[in-house]
Design goal:
The protein has 106 residues and is α+β, with helices and mostly antiparallel strands. Helix content is 36%, strand content 25%. Strands 1-2-3-4-5 form a 5-stranded antiparallel sheet, covered by helices on one side. It is globular and about 35 Å long.
Amino acid sequence: NNPLPPCFIPPISLTSRMNQNNAMSPKFRQEDGYVFKIYSNEEERKHIHVVKAGCAAKFWLEPDIDLASNSGFSSKDLKKITQLVEKYGDEFKQQFAEHIGKRIDD
């Protein structure tokens, strides 16, 4: 029995980005322990980051929902996350656009 979670310990740069204040990385939704958010200093192509227990993944929201990167999530987790991203994809797109608009207007 391995008491450690199945996810790796992320590199310092990823950890520091995951700990940025909420203004820079607003949380859009939390479900089943997964936190869905964006980072304000990234590209404007609509996407969502998912973090949980030291794991992180990034999904493109357009033109289609697609896994962009994965650091530590199992295939079972990715299947569940993909279902959630598909379920809330339109909502995430709208929230992303609103957040980027605020960032550009500031």
